[in-house]
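Hi R.,

As promised on Friday, here is the backbone we talked about, encoded as structure tokens. Could you run it through your design pipeline when you get a chance and send me back a sequence?
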């Protein structure tokens, strides 16, 4: 990958190469390899309106431009837009809609997504139907004349349900609606929804793409130039754009995305198999296990099964709380996708806002534990979980 940046139209190179180089050329003046942090708000114009591509940093900033090109390349997209957070990117997709429009979405979407749908945009007279997205018939049945958007996540949080992206996108298009996918859990290393028919991919860059739990960001990717123009209008008009330091940090993160994801997946697979054999564990939710109901679709549309998993203990809410409080390497924290392992209990934490009956009906038991498997040594991670489970539960398993 040398200086002829147009010729490396990226599809020639594999994702391991593009993650490091796409959108990033050595500085032509200094030869510096790394994209500079353009800490700058405004740009000199030679005459009114005659500028060198940049006028004002909310509208465009060179560090952000490199990040957007890099992310677009990873998702096999023609266009990319970066935002100040994953929520800002989700908000921008909703900006495309009009009063009276209807959205079909999953009954287990990320809580913040559910919140912006019901507590912000319902007030603007958008309507939302929350359905079981693993059932294409249910998705289809929810469509109405006013449906303008199908919004989905796969794998979902925290039960790792798998949605058939190709099937869902086809339903959206038969009904003249857009299909947008939050690809945060899978990342483009494992799943590229635009190739499967989606119109827009959304990311929380805060998670695997940043990868080091040190930055908050979001992105939207598409192959549709007109759609990108509209997203760009709202990106600038609303103004939730990332600063250059944040853009730089994500660019630094994406360079190692492939190697990190390989280790996340490998560790998660080993831990899922270990948990599946553990006498105190009732159920493991990991799409890489053949017992997972979405395993076959996941195997078709993903290159591997990711670093997120959940499991249900044969235990009370309090005992499960003791397990997540007892780990040493796994940090008790919300969020996911960093190099370090995190553990959390959805019932009193990420999903506490859902009334208990409703939560149980959705399959989120009191003793459910969600894990973001990091890239530490897997034997240390298993020993940590084993000790935490043993010391919290009355009947120690003694298994390692
Ligand atoms: C799947 C998913 N989408 C979107 C978001 C929102 O991203 P952010 O926290 O960067 O606004 C999150 C955050 O946890 C998430 O898990």
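Update: got your reply. Pasting your designed sequence below so it's all in one thread:
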């Amino acid at each position: 990958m040398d200086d002829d940046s147009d010729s490396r139209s990226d599809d020639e190179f594999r994702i391991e190469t593009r993650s490091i180089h796409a959108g990033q050329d050595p500085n032509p003046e200094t030869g510096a390899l790394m994209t500079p942090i353009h800490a700058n708000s405004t740009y000199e114009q030679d005459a009114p309106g005659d500028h060198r591509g940049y006028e004002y940093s909310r509208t465009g900033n060179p560090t952000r431009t490199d990040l957007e090109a890099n992310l677009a390349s990873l998702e096999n997209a023609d266009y990319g837009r970066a935002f100040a957070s994953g929520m800002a990117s989700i908000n921008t997709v909703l900006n495309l809609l009009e009063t009276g429009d209807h959205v079909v979405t999953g009954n287990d979407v990320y809580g913040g997504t559910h919140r912006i749908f019901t507590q912000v945009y319902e007030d603007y007279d958008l309507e939302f139907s929350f359905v079981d997205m693993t059932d294409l018939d249910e998705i289809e049945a929810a469509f109405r004349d006013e449906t303008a958007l199908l919004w989905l996540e796969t794998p979902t949080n925290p039960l790792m349900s798998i949605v058939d992206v190709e099937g869902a996108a086809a339903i959206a298009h038969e009904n003249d609606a857009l299909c947008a996918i939050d690809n945060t859990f899978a990342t483009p290393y494992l799943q590229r929804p635009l190739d499967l028919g989606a119109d827009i991919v959304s990311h929380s860059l805060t998670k695997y793409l940043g990868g080091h739990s040190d930055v908050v960001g979001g992105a939207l990717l598409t192959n549709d130039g007109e759609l990108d123009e509209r997203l760009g209008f709202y990106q600038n008009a609303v103004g939730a754009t990332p600063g250059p330091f944040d853009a730089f940090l994500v660019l630094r993160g994406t360079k190692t995305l492939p190697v990190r994801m390989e280790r996340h997946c490998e560790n998660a697979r080993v831990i899922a198999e270990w948990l599946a054999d553990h006498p105190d564990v009732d159920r493991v939710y990991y799409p890489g296990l053949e017992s997972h109901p979405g395993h076959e679709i996941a195997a078709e549309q993903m290159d591997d099964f990711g670093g997120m998993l959940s499991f249900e203990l044969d235990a009370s809410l309090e005992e499960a709380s003791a397990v997540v409080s007892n780990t040493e390497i796994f940090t008790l924290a919300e969020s996911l996708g960093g190099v370090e392992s995190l553990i959390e209990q959805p019932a009193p934490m990420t999903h506490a806002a859902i009334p208990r009956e409703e939560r149980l009906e959705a399959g989120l038991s009191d003793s459910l534990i969600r894990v973001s498997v990091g890239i530490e040594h897997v034997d240390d991670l298993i020993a940590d979980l084993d000790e935490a489970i043993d010391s919290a539960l009355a009947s120690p398993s003694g298994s390692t």
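One thing I noticed while checking it: Residues 257-276 form the longest helix (20 residues).

Thanks again,
M.
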